[in-house]
Amino acid sequence: MFTVQPQSPVPLVTQIVEGLRKLIDDGALRAGTKVPSIRQFAHAHEVSVFTVVEAYDRLVALGYLVSRPHSGFFVRKRSTALDSGPGAPGAAGYRFDSAWYVRKIFENRHLAMKAGCGWLPHDWLFEDGVRRSLRALAADNADLGGYGDPKGFPPLRELIRDSMAEQEIAISPDQVLLTQGSSQALDLMVRRLVRPGDAVLVDDPGYANLLFSLRFSGARLVGVPRTPQGWDLATLERLIVEQQPRVFFCQPRLQSPTGSIAQLAHLHRLLQLAEKHDLTVVENDIYSDLDPYPRASLASLDQLERVAYIGSYSKTISPNLRVGYLIAHPDLIEDVAQLKMISGLTSSEFNERLVYGALTEGRWRKHLKALRERLGEAQERVAGELARLGFELFAEPKAGMFLWARHPAIPDAAEVSHRAAAQDIMLGPGHLFRVEEGPCAWMRFNVAFSGDARLFGFLRGVAEAQT
Fold first, then answer.
1. Residues 6+ apart with CB under 8 A from 229
2. Same fold for the pair 12-85 and 366-466
3. What is the DSSP annotation of 27-44?
């Protein structure tokens, strides 16, 4: 085998990946050989289980190992196609290491401190409104025996039409498609607009679930550098000319992971470029309800000529209800509605009725006002604590859930995240949100979960140990 060197400046994950790759390339581990289990390897080399998992998953992504359910990891017979590496179009280039982290860590709620997660604490959500809606729905004796409308519960679509009118977006209810959360809306748009090998523009850093979906579809991701003001517009224009993409998936407001907000001038310039180069823009605006200030959106400026708009109630009412929506040009909505029916028939009318009841029972606006104020206070508190520890903040939005920060003494946030998980702390390492692989110093902090002094004590200890 080989020896892992904990004191080496080379990250442990990289050491394991390179060590096993060399053994396989040299023939010391032949095709079909079972490698030590994750726990066996971790115990033998005195490293974290999380470190071994990421290393093995990178080796799967690179085509060196194959995972067999209930059996373990085996050396894979490598073909010429696999030797083309993770940059090749299609599923061979899928980032299994990051996908594992999202699946096993971000969704693993047993960790006590969830500083890197993407949801709100349950007592910050509209649980009372959901309970009242549930009681009203039970008393109403509604007929829930059918599949429901293909586009979703009509009264909720009408309510969304009215909400969009307040944002100066003029639509009819037929232009609203209800989905199983914003993730299904994004996935439907990927399947409608993207073909394997297509160049697709995305925020960099950007929305992790979208990046995974696009990689799995075989898209060629082209990262547009995110700035505190929006995007690097000169680079955006150059990439459009050079790469000739057909679509840009972006998140102008309270973006994940950076929390930044694109300025109005950036929105106008993006739409000018979209018009000039025949570009479709998919605007992910799922955090709009967390914004205390009214702002123009790409959809309001464009009136859905080139922009498709995605929203969600999972972030503010309840993630368990999984209710999101897509609004777009009528022709595009009809196409995507067909895809929705093919992939899963209708969405849950029961959940949609619950959301509708919560939105209309009279306390929704009061809940949003209190939530925005609470997040604003948490933003100020967490930003101050991070700054005192010597972290650089990418932006200070003073709204929404996220802060994006890095410390000069911490070069690889993934290594720190594995150590944090062993201490019951969930962090959001930056490589999950980047287009290109490689170590990343940035971390995403969810301010609603970052108030515990133990978190900052852990970060202080890590930073001091590196200096």
1. 260, 262, 263, 266
2. no
3. TSS-TTPBPPPHHHHHHH
SS3 state of residue 448: helix
Distance CA 231, CA 248 (A): 12
The encoded tokens of residue 174 equal: 């037929």
pLDDT digits (tens, 9 = 90+) for 208-244: 889 988 988 899 999 999 999 999 999 999 999 999 9
The pLDDT tens digits for 330-345 are: 999 999 989 888 877 7
Q: Do the Cβ atoms of 426 and 420 come closer than 8 Å?
A: yes
pLDDT in tens, 189-215: 999 999 999 999 999 999 988 998 898
Domain ranges (residues) in the chain:
12-85, 127-360, 366-466
Q: How far apart are CA 73 and CA 64, in angstroms?
A: 10
Query: Which CATH fold would you assign to the domain 12-85?
Result: Arc Repressor Mutant, subunit A (1.10.10)
- pLDDT confidence of residue 80: 38
The pLDDT, as a whole number, for residue 373 is 97
Contacts (Cβ under 8 Å, ≥6 apart) of 169: 297, 299, 300, 303, 304, 309, 327
Q: Which fold has domain 366-466?
A: Aspartate Aminotransferase, domain 1 (3.90.1150)
Range 55-83 average pLDDT: 73
Q: 300 with 167: CB under 8 angstroms?
A: yes
pLDDT digits (tens, 9 = 90+) for 346-369: 778 889 999 999 999 889 999 999
Kindly indicate whether the domain formed by 127-360 is annotated with CATH number 3.40.350.10.
no
For residue 416, which of 50, 5, 14, 98 has the smallest C-alpha distance? 50
SS3 at position 249:
strand
pTM here is 0.78
Residues 6 or more apart whose Cβ sits within 8 Å of residue 190: 210, 213, 214, 217, 219, 249
